[in-house]
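Protocol step 4 of 5: obtain the predicted structure for the target chain.
Materials: sequence only (see below). No template structures provided, no constraints applied. The aim of this step is simply to have a reference model before the mutagenesis design in step 5. Sequence pasted as it appears in the construct record:
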Amino acid sequence: MRNFNEVYEKLYAEKNEKLELLRKQKASKMLIVIIITIVVSIIGVVTLSSFGFAIVFFAFIIAIIATVGISKKYNYTGTFKKEVIETFIKECDSNLNFYPERGISSNVYRQGEFEGYDNYYSEDLIEGILDEKYKVEMSEVRTEDESTDSDGDTTTTTVFHGIFGQVDCAKQIPGFIKIHSDKGFLGKVFGKKNKIEMDSSEFEKHFDVYTLNPIMTMQILTSDIMEMLIEFKEKSKIKYEITLKGANMYIRFHTGGVFEPKLFGQSLDFDTLKKYYDIIEFIFRVTRAVNKVIAETEI
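Step 4 output (structure tokens):
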């Protein structure tokens, strides 16, 4: 991957002026709509009558219509993904491609065996080939759980929202290796079943490891790989999980929504783009390190 500062400086020089103009145009229009909606709503509430509440209702309807109209006229999000994210991904690594309208299949996500869910959404697909032999794909994923109470009211709860990726493994892995950093919820779900103790007390502070094959797991999770996993967790402050299963590695990061522009903030936010860069670079490093060990290990 190219150096991040080089990528950012090139992107800023080529895209910032256009993006900032579009962002400020949309932001100013949205701010006007918000102010008008608030003022009209206050007037409606002050009247303390059914007519007043009707004013509030229509104010919000008009605000919604105006918001949709502004979004269509100033397609800031679409332009941002096309002009910034697509260019950013390609500049980071020329072997990667970005497809904002596509996502990763729920069937692929299920293979990671992270959690159960009722609703699945995915968009902003990144895919390519690493080192001319390992297929890599990642995208934004959101899963939801639905529950209905005795009155028939349905509550929707977000279970996971962030970046999920799948990469090829050098060889087929029997069974599974699961590396989880959520020692609360997932610890209760898995309990002590198939959990093994690693030979690093520092690693144990951050992760729980589950497997049907402890010897193979110890061989694959070398001290260097464990140190790499710890370093990224401590540096990025991002919670993540990894599953090695079959001929694939599945990895997800609890980042929340990604690849969306800030309306009331700098278009090319340095820290946000650096976070995306670090995640992609980490996936590449883990893939290379794990596959090197797998290729050299009798499985």
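Step 4 remarks: The longest strand covers residues 154-180. The chain has a mean pLDDT of 86.
Proceed to step 5.
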